[in-house]
């Protein structure tokens, strides 16, 4: 009678074939909703709760800060 040794296989790790399609060094683009969250929140809060006659003028610095932040990610507003 012969004894068979069990075959032990290592689990293979799946490869991400899509990753191979991207050129080396290419940075994935971010979505506008995912950046500058603090600046957007401050801008929105200022616009919504401003007691000034002209909230747009009152919150100009917040709007500018948000636009500058978005510009650093390549978005034009």
Automatic annotation (TrEMBL):
Pfam families linked to this entry: COX17
A GO biological-process term: mitochondrial respiratory chain complex IV assembly
Subcellular compartments: Mitochondrion intermembrane space
Keywords on record: Chaperone, Copper, Disulfide bond, Metal-binding, Mitochondrion
Gene Ontology, cellular component aspect: mitochondrial intermembrane space
Question: What Gene Ontology molecular function terms does this protein carry?
Answer: copper chaperone activity; copper ion binding
Q: Which residues bind Cu cation?
A: 33-34
* Main location, first listed in the record: mitochondrion
Q: Which family does it belong to?
A: Belongs to the COX17 family.
What is this protein called in UniProt?
Cytochrome c oxidase assembly protein subunit 17
Species source reads: Capronia coronata CBS 617.96
Upper classification of the organism: Eukaryota, Fungi, Dikarya, Ascomycota, Pezizomycotina
């Amino acid at each position: 009678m012969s004894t068979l040794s069990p075959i032990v296989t290592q689990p293979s790790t799946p490869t991400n074939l899509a990753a191979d399609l991207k050129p080396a060094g290419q940075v994935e683009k971010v979505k506008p909703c995912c950046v500058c969250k603090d600046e957007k929140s401050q801008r929105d809060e200022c616009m919504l709760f401003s007691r000034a006659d002209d909230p747009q003028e009152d919150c100009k610095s917040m709007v500018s800060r948000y636009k500058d932040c978005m510009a650093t990610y390549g978005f034009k507003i």
